Amino acid sequence: MWTPVELPYFCGTDGLPAPLPTTDEIMTSTTLLKDRLGQKMVRVGQHFVVKYGHGTGEVEGHNLLLKDMFDGMHSLPSPGFYGSIVKGYMPRHLFYSHPADQSISGPFLHENEVNNAIAGKLRSIFTHNKKYNYKSDFYERHLSRVLSGHRAVFSHSDIYRKNIMIHKTHRHTPEKCDYIVALVDWEYAGWYPSYWDYEISFTHFHWDDDWPERFESFLEPWLAEVALIKSRLERSAHLQEK
């Protein structure tokens, strides 16, 4: 039975690789990994990456508790819902609604509810632009014919190269490689259909190098699912830009 993460969460000093950085150490760090409006991500010392700012939500900190399980996260037992790790709304913008509409944002108990939300979000965008959307009708009729049978798995939902960090260990030599690989930026992580991590990353491939092929080496391709969702995203993005 699913139980929520107990909050606030505290880790004993014996479970940390080094003492936590102070506020001054964080604010004065010169190793900037990301800088956007309201948020910064910096490296502090040899062991910590810290994200801070007005746009940093508490849910992202909750998701960090699971980052050590990334290699096996898609095999974690399903909690029986699709949503954030605290059984909240789906974190990705594809499910954003304001004011909050649970039929679009979740959480959801069944995959067909996720499909209805994908179609419903598209319809809401067209309605906002004072247009009728026949494509939403199509998705409502047929989406569940392809998007079905996908259990809820814990997904990072933002697996891009900028979020993958690789560090050479002291055992690394010219003759033998030894790396530590870490995944950062867990803001959008949650329980999504099993195709999600591949699908949402596919929509951002630039196809100017071999990254899409390398991506397949650690995530199973979901081609039919990608085709449907990519078509859905392209049209809605066009409208939102107007």
UniProtKB/TrEMBL annotation:
SUPFAM superfamilies: Protein kinase-like (PK-like) (SSF56112). InterPro entries: AGP_Transferase (IPR051678), Kinase-like_dom_sf (IPR011009). Transmembrane segments: none annotated. PANTHER family: AMINOGLYCOSIDE PHOSPHOTRANSFERASE DOMAIN-CONTAINING PROTEIN, AMINOGLYCOSIDE PHOSPHOTRANSFERASE-RELATED-RELATED. This is Aminoglycoside phosphotransferase domain-containing protein. The lineage of its organism: Eukaryota, Fungi, Dikarya, Ascomycota, Pezizomycotina.
